[in-house]
Amino acid sequence: MSASGEPADPPVEPQGTVARCAVWLMSAANAVSTAWIIVIMLLIVADVLGRELFLLPIVGVHEMVGFSIVGIVFLQAAHANLRGRMIRSDGLVTSIGLRRPRVQAGFDLLAHLLGAILSVALVFAIWPRMARAFARDELQGIPGHFTLPVWPMLALIVFGSAMLALSFLMAALVAWRRLRQVPS
Amino acid sequence: MTNLVVGYLSLIAICVTIYAGIHIAVALSLVSMLGIWLMMGQPHLALVFVAQAVTESIANYLFGVVPLFILMGLVVAESGMGRDTFAVVSHYLRGVRGGLGVATVLSNAIFAAVTGISIASAAVFARIAVPEMVRAGYDRRIAVGVVAGSSVLGMLIPPSLLMIFFAFLTDTSIGDLFLGGVGPGLLLTAAYSLYLLALGRLQPHRLEPAGKRGEPEARPKRRMLLPVFALAALVLGGIYAGFFTPTEAGAIGAFLAILFAMLMRRIGLREAWRITLETGHITASISLLIIGATIYSRMLSLSGVPASLTAWAAGSGLGPIGVMLLFSLLLILLGTILDSGSILLVTVPLAFPIAMQLGIDPVHFGLVTVIAVEIGLLTPPLGLSVFVVHSTLRDTGVTLGEVFRGALPFAAVMTAVLLAVIFYPPIVLAIIGR
Amino acid sequence: GAEFKATIVAGHPPIFPWVKLFTEVMIPETNKALEGTGHTIVWTEGYGGSIAAVGGEAAAIEDGLAQIGTVSTVFAPAQFPLQNVSYVVPFGSADAALVLSIVDDLHKTIPAMRKLWEDRNMEYVYSAVGVDDYVLMTKKPLASFAGLNGLKIGAPGPAVNWLKGTGAVGVSGNLTTYYNDLQTGVIDGAIVFATAAAPAKLFEQAKYVTKARLGAQYSGATIVNKEWFDSLPPEVKAAVTKGLQAYASGYMANLQARLDAAMKAMEAGGAVISELPEAERAKWAAALPNLPMEWAKDQDAKGLPGTDVLAAFLDGLRKAGTTLPRDWQAK
Ligand code: NA
Ligand code: NA
Description:
The structure holds 3 protein chains of 3 kinds. Chain A contains 5 helices and 2 strands. Chain A is mainly α. Chain A is elongated and about 70 Å long. Chain B is mainly alpha-helical. Chain B has one domain. Chain B starts with a helix and ends in a 5-residue tail after the last helix. The structure holds sodium ion (NA) (2 copies). One sodium ion is lined by residues 335-336, 376, 379, 382-383 of chain B. One sodium ion binds at residues 335-336, 376, 379, 382-383 of chain B.
C-alpha cells in the first residue's frame, strides 16, 4: 500500500502571512474533502438499500462517485503534502544525509521543486480543457437519465494543483533554508 | 530515437529519479512527459497527454470506493476489535509453546476479513500483541517479526485494497480476486503457524522460557469476537449473497464499522472525523500515485515496450511458470525500494498482456502478483509493515533493524507460499471452480 | 518524399474488430497506396486506453494527440448528440449494416451532423462502427413483457432509458461487472449485444437469451484530425482515404458472420435463445415514455435539427421495410 504509516517528510510549519493564508486555505479544502468522503459513503449505502429494499436505486450514483473522488483527491492533495504524506523513497538520500546533510537538503530541494513544476504543468494542462468544457456546456453521463457538467471537476483539478504547487514551494523554501544553514 | 528506445530509457530514468528521492508520482509524471515530448516531437502534446490521462485516471466508480475501504480499515483498527480478537484467541492457545505467536497470526487472519489494508493490521497488533509476547518472555525480535509478517494477511484475505488496484488495472473481476485470495491466505496462515510451532520445539528459549509462560489476568469473554465476526459476515456475506457488489462493499463496510464502533462506545464523533481525515490523506497520496502511474503506463505502452517484452517472453520459451517466476523476482526486487501500490501500478500494465498471451488465468496471475508484492512489505530498506510496527513501538526502544531482521524469516515463509501458488494454481482457483 | 507521423487512438483494446482492423487492414493498405509516392507515414498505435479511455477519444483527436481514431459516440452522447439517434429509438432494426448506413447517410444529407465533427477539428470520413442487435439475457426465462416487472437489469449507457416504465430497474454496469453481478444476484439480467456477451461467457450465469430486437446501433465513427488531414499533400491524403475505405469495408464485410458465430457459441455453451413475441414487444414499446420525441425536442431546443434527424432516421428504417412496434411521431 502507501507510505501512510510514516510521514516521508517532516510537516512544513508556516512562516509569514502568505504562508499562513495558504495553510488556512489548504486546511479548509481538507475539511471539505473529509466531509465529502462521508457523503459518498452515505450515498452508496442509500443506493444499495434503495435498490435492494424498494427497487429504487439512486439515479447517477456512479457518475457522482466518479466526480467525487477527483474532488476528494485534489482538495486533499496540498494538505497531505504539507503533512509530508506524499509518497517518496528517500531511504538512500536519508542515509547519505547522515554524513552529508547538505547533500540531503539539496536532494530535498530538487524533489520539492520538481513537484512544484509538475503541479504548475497540471494547471496549464487542464485549464484549456476546463475553459472549453465551460464554453461548450459539456456534460457527462447519459442524457435523459442523469448528467453532470464537466467543468467543475476540471476546475477542482486546476484549483487543487495550484494549491499543491504552493505547498511544494513552501517545502522547497524549508529545504533551501536548511541548505543555507547546515555547515557542509 | 525510436519510440522503443525512448520507452526503455524511461525505465532507467524512473529508477534513477525514484532512488534520488523524487516523489514517486512526480517522477512518473515528469519522465512520461519528457518521453511523450521525445516521441511526438511537440512539447505541448506532452501537456495534452497529461490532461487526457489525469482526467481519465481516477474519475470512475471503481476507484471512487478506495477511500471507503481505507476508512473501514482505520475504523476497525481504532475500535479495539483487533485487541478483543487477540485476547480470546490467545486465551485458547495459552497451553501451547509458541501459542502467543500463533494467536497473533490467527487473530490477524480473522481481522483481515474486516480490513482491506495491511497497515491497519500492523498498527493494531504491534500495539497489542508485541507487549504480550515480550511479557511472556519472547525474544523481542520474534515478537515484532510475527506482527509485521502476519500483517500481510490484511491484503491477502478479502477484502483487499491491492486486489482492487489489480482489478482496476486489468478489468479482472474483483469478486473472483477476493475469493481467489482465500486459499493463499489460509495457506500462509497455516505456514506461519507451523513455523512458530516448529520454532517452539527447536528453539524454545527464544519463545517462552520455562516458568515465564504468561498467565492472562482474566478469562476473556468469547462474545468479544462477536463484532468482528458480525462485521465480516455482513460484508462478505452481503457480497456473496448478492445484496451489494464487491465495489459497494467498501461503503457498507465503512458504514457498519463506524456504526459498530460507536455503538460499542469505542469512538465518538470527534474520532470518526479524525479517522476520516487520515483516510483523506492516505487517499490523496495513493491517488496521486495512481495518476502518475496511469500517465507512465500509457506512455510506456505507446512506446511499444510492453509489446516488445510480450514478444520476447512469448518467443523465449519460458512458458507460464518461467514468466511468473521471473515476474515475481522482479516484484520482490522492486519491493525493496517501492511500496506495494506503486509496484503494482508500474508493473502490471506491462506484465498482464504477457500473462494473457501465455494463457495464465487472470485471477491466478493476480494472486501471484499480490503475494510477491506483499513480500516487499517486509524487506529493507523500504518495508511498509515494518515501518508501521516500528513507528508504533518506537517509544519502547525497538530499532528499525531489529524489526527488519525479525520479519525476514516470515518473508522467507511467504516466498515458499508464493512458489506453492505459482506451481499449484488450484490453491487460488479451486474456490472459483476454474 | 517526406515522412509524416500519425498516431491512431482507440479507447477499446485490439480484441475488438474495429480496433484490430487498424493494424490488419488500415495501416497496410495505406502504406501500399503510398508506394511510389516517395512519402511514408510513421505509425504509432495507441489502443486500449494508452492514449484515451473509451469516450475520451474525441478530445485526444481534437487536440492533436492522435490523428486518426475511433470515437465512441455512444460514450460521448453530450458531445455527439445527433450521432446517438439510434440509441434513442429502441426497437429499431436488428440489422447493424442498415443502421450504420442510415446514420452514415444522415451525415451527407444533414450538414449539422458533419458540423459537430468539424467544430471539434475533425473530419468525418465514411467509417461507422456499430453494435449488433441488443438482446436481453436473464437468469429466468422471459416469455412476456410482464416478466420484466421487478427485475434488476444491468444496462449500459443510454440503454437504461429503455427500461423506463417497464417495472424493471436499470443498474449501471458494464461487461466486466455483469458476470459477477449476475452470479451473486445483484442483477437478474442484462441488456447486452451478442458479440460481446459470448466472449464474456455471460450465458453461464444468465442462459435465457431473449431476442427482443431492441435494435442494432450506430456506436461510433472513425475520424481524422482535420488540421492534420488538410495539411497532407494530395497523394498522401488519397492514400489515407484509401486505407480508411479498406478498413470500413473490412468492418462491414464480417458484421453478420461475427454475429452468427457469437450466437452459435452461446448456444453451444448452453444458452436458450428465443424471440420475444411481436405483441409483447409492442407492449414494451407502448410502456416507454416517447424517448425519440423527447430527445428530438431537447435537440431542437439546443439549436440542433433533432426533429429532422429523427424523421430521416425513421424514414430510413421504413424505406428498408422495417416494421416499428410504435409510431413515435404520432401526435
Ligand atoms: Na482483508
Ligand atoms: Na520492501
